[in-house]
Amino acid sequence: MEQKQPSQPLTDLSAHEHAMSLPMSEVVGELVALLGATTVAVIGGVTETRAVQQWTAGREPQRGHVLRFALQIARMIAGVDGDNETVRAWFGGSNPRLGDAIPALLLRSEPLEKVQAPLMKAARAFAGR
């Protein structure tokens, strides 16, 4: 049986270019594949995953810039261990580099301008570990 090789994380530049070049429906689709619809709903600031499904069908989310940034970070982290569990754990877990805050909740509750730099710094540190 062939063993799966872990994929390499994208650099912050290539992750940025990837997240910014996709149509929003694909951004949301990738986020759902990486994080699950519930976490994408949290990041997108909605209470139902039905809204996330509507975004994948072409409806524009109000917080598209936050979703693109979340995809950038997720793609930076995704290859570290070769599975989505690492990405889900990073977004949903308490992060000591962020004062023990949870990244998904920071993205939901704080303006992106306030949390973008600390989240990027924490993601870079984790991806480069």
**Uncertain segments of ≥5 residues (pLDDT<50)?**
1-6
How many distinct helices? 8
Largest sheet: none
The helix/strand class is mainly alpha
Q: Radius of gyration, rounded?
A: 14 Å
| Percent of residues in helices | 55-70%
- N→C terminal distance: 29 Å
Shape: globular
The fraction of residues assigned to DSSP E strands is: under 5%
Order of helices and strands: HHHHHHHH
**Overall pLDDT confidence:** 89
User: Could you tell me the number of beta strands?
Assistant: 0
Structure, described:
This protein is mainly α and 129 residues long. It contains eight helices and no strands. The chain has helices at residues 12-21, 24-35, 37-44, 49-56, 64-78, 84-92, 103-109, 112-127. Helix 1 crosses helix 5 (64-78), helix 3 runs parallel beside helix 7 and helix 5 crosses helix 6.
Short description, anyone?
The chain has 129 residues and is an all-alpha fold.
Write the layout of secondary structure elements.
Elements: H1 12-21, H2 24-35, H3 37-44, H4 49-56, H5 64-78, H6 84-92, H7 103-109, H8 112-127
Supply database-style keywords:
129 residues, mainly alpha
